[in-house]
């Protein structure tokens, strides 16, 4: 199908791992790890776990949204050039979604590992189960991906003509 | 221009209005013009008359306020984004003011990019890219990055990139703008050569009367009207 960059589209947009991406990933890692540790604690019920992690993951949503917005703002020119050369809006959106998905998957994996190791070393955290890990991964992934997706929509509203004039 | 000539590009009562602090600026004043197949037309006028805006409107990157622009029989002012993108990728080559190359790609990759977007077969892609690199005498620079090139070389890369897809319509916005005299002297005969070799239709926006002379026809753009209330 014409107008669709191949799966390497990200190589035209993402040459390196930027500081804003590193910050977003760090936020995902910390929140996921915290959710795993909280969930394995004796004193936590499912209700209190949900309540405390909702705050953490709201933070993930907002941080990822803000960081991806920054990322898009810094790549406006590249996006405009690709669009002007015939790349479809959907293929560029897909490239940003994939990038967010990679960050979310990487952040979740690292967060679970850190959270799991910490929980294993803490005497009060003996309730660690696959449900807890699953819950932390699911909520972390959903909040980071949705934050990134909301920001990535900015690509759709980019005024190519104006960007290329600047 | 004979009556049998196929029009590639047509402007019909084209007007673009910009809102500014000092009032509304009306560009083009209901421009009506036609560019036929194989023609090399130069859109001329001093800075600020809207030449870049006109190129952007033809490429579907901006919308006019009134009137229509027909490219290859299709009214680009009424097309949806996907159809416009396809028309631009398949039938148009655009050389933007300031070259607009991707800094993280080398010369070869920048020129190859429109073919990657069109998903051209890799061997065909490499062949066409190399061919055009040789034509523009950029072989020595094919692995260089835009930051290491001179302004004239960057402009050559931008023209090569626009031509690599063999477009029906080539749009060039100030191809010699910002270049020094030696670079203009190199680029001018090259642009003339492109017209002979490309065989497609070329529309070039320029404020240089010397450069406009290499075109077969001139489309002068009227000075914009500044009105408190724009009269269409």
What does this protein structure show overall?
The complex is a heterodimer of chains A (166) and B (232). Chain A is mainly α. Chain A has one domain. Chain A is built from seven helices and no strands. The mean pLDDT of chain A is 82. Helices cover 34% and strands 27% of the residues of chain B. Chain B has helices at residues 51-58, 81-91, 107-117, 122-135, 151-163, 181-198, 209-212; strands at 7-20, 23-36, 40-44, 66-71, 74-75, 92-95, 169-173, 201-206, 217-220, 225-227. Chain B has a five-stranded antiparallel beta sheet, covered by helices on one side. A five-stranded parallel beta sheet of chain B has the order 6-7-8-3-9, with helices on both faces. In chain B, helix 3 crosses helix 4, helix 3 packs parallel to helix 5 (151-163) and helix 5 packs parallel to helix 6 (181-198). Chain B is globular, with a radius of gyration of 18 Å. The two termini of chain B are 30 Å apart. The relative contact order of chain B is 0.22. The mean pLDDT of chain B is 89. The interface between A and B is medium-sized, with 27 and 29 residues.
